[in-house]
Amino acid sequence: MSDFNSSVNLTMTINGVPRVIACNPADMLCDVLRSAGYTEVKKGCDTGNCGVCTVWLDGVPVPSCSVFAGRAEGREITTVRGVEKEATEFAQFLVAQGADQCGYCTPGFTMMVLALKRELKSPTETEIRHYLSGNLCRCSGYEGHLRAIIKYLEASHE
Ligand code: FES
Ligand code: FES
């Protein structure tokens, strides 16, 4: 019978680096990552609704506040630091469109935009809005973000 209070060693690859992290597998991945030093993973609602905690699990974006750490055993996790070059490029488009404000939502938002870029070829504006509907920003009205994404995707495909 499992003990939900016990710590185990979880093996995972984070940003391309193999790691063994001692934690309770019933803890949430967001908290485990932050405790292990990956503070670029932000936490907001803690209920799977705002998207600021988004990381990739085997390349698929997930809200890490709603994923048990035990589910990451043997899998590959990518945070925004693991895609730093692309994230920096995208940030320049956010800045150019005046969509850089407090920046708290940016790491999770960026992980979704980069996943979108991989998943959808030439998405429509509606598809972009739909894809990013789970990523909230408390500072902006999203129009600057949308312009930045469209211009970033256009530049990426040139
Ligand atoms: S903190 Fe995870 S979705 Fe809001
Ligand atoms: S820029 Fe502040 S929450 Fe999005």
Would you spell out the secondary-structure blueprint of this structure?
Elements: E1 8-14, E2 17-23, H1 29-35, E3 54-57, E4 60-63, E5 76-78, H2 84-96, H3 106-119, H4 125-131, H5 143-156
Parallel strand pairs: 1-5
Antiparallel strand pairs: 1-2, 3-4, 3-5
Helix pairs in contact: 2-3, 2-5
This protein binds FE2/S2 (inorganic) cluster (2 copies).
Protein architecture, described:
The longest helix is centred in the last third of the chain and has 14 residues, at 106-119. The mean pLDDT is 95. A hairpin with a 2-residue loop joins strand 3 (54-57) and strand 4. This protein has helices spanning 29-35, 84-96, 106-119, 125-131, 143-156; strands spanning 8-14, 17-23, 54-57, 60-63, 76-78. By secondary structure, the protein is of the alpha+beta class. The protein has 2 domains: 8-79, Beta-grasp domain (Ubiquitin-like (UB roll), Roll); 82-156, [2Fe-2S]-binding domain (DNA polymerase, domain 1), CATH 1.10.150. The termini are far apart. A 5-stranded mixed beta sheet has the order 2-1-5-3-4, with helices on one face. It is elongated, with a radius of gyration of 16 Å. One FE2/S2 (inorganic) cluster is lined by residues 43-46, 48-53, 63, 65.
